């Protein structure tokens, strides 16, 4: 959409400048067949329509760039390691209760 807009702006400004010096794009020679005022209105409409397309094209590209960013994955919980049964840390001695005699 943006590239079509730039093309319309180029053609509108180009035909505007060329008409002032007595030339015209062959593609757009028909616009003066309807009268000088209508020709100038069509030139202005080309510039405005192209500008609108460029504006919305840039806006949609910016919106697409924001939504195209990769989402951060949810943090994964670390797996719990079960303690082996019968495991006692080194240097640990269980408390002995005094024996009754």
Written account of the structure:
- The chain has two helices and no strands.
- By secondary structure, the chain is an all-alpha fold.
- It has a domain of 60 residues.
SSE layout and pairing:
Layout: H1 2-20, H2 36-67
Brief summary of the model shown:
This protein has 101 residues and is mainly α. It contains two helices and no strands. The protein is rod-shaped, with a radius of gyration of 38 Å.
- Structural class, from secondary structure content? mainly alpha
| Global geometry | rod-shaped
Query: How many extended strands?
Result: 0
Helix content: 40-55%
Q: What is the N-to-C succession of helices and strands?
A: HH
Report the oligomer: single chain
Low-confidence stretches: none
What value does the average pLDDT take?
A: 81
Query: Number of DSSP helices?
Result: 2
- Rg, alpha carbons: 38 Å
Which features does this protein show?
single chain, 101 residues, mainly alpha, 50% helix
């Amino acid at each position: 959409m943006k590239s079509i807009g730039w093309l319309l702006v180029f053609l509108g400004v180009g035909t505007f400048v060329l008409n002032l010096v007595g030339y015209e794009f062959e593609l757009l020679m028909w616009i003066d067949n309807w009268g000088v005022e209508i020709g100038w209105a069509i030139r202005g409409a080309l510039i405005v329509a192209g500008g609108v397309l460029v504006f919305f094209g840039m806006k949609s590209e910016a919106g697409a760039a924001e939504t195209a960013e990769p989402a951060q994955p949810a943090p994964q919980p670390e797996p719990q390691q079960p303690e082996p049964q019968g495991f006692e840390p080194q240097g640990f001695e269980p408390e002995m209760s005094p024996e009754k005699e």
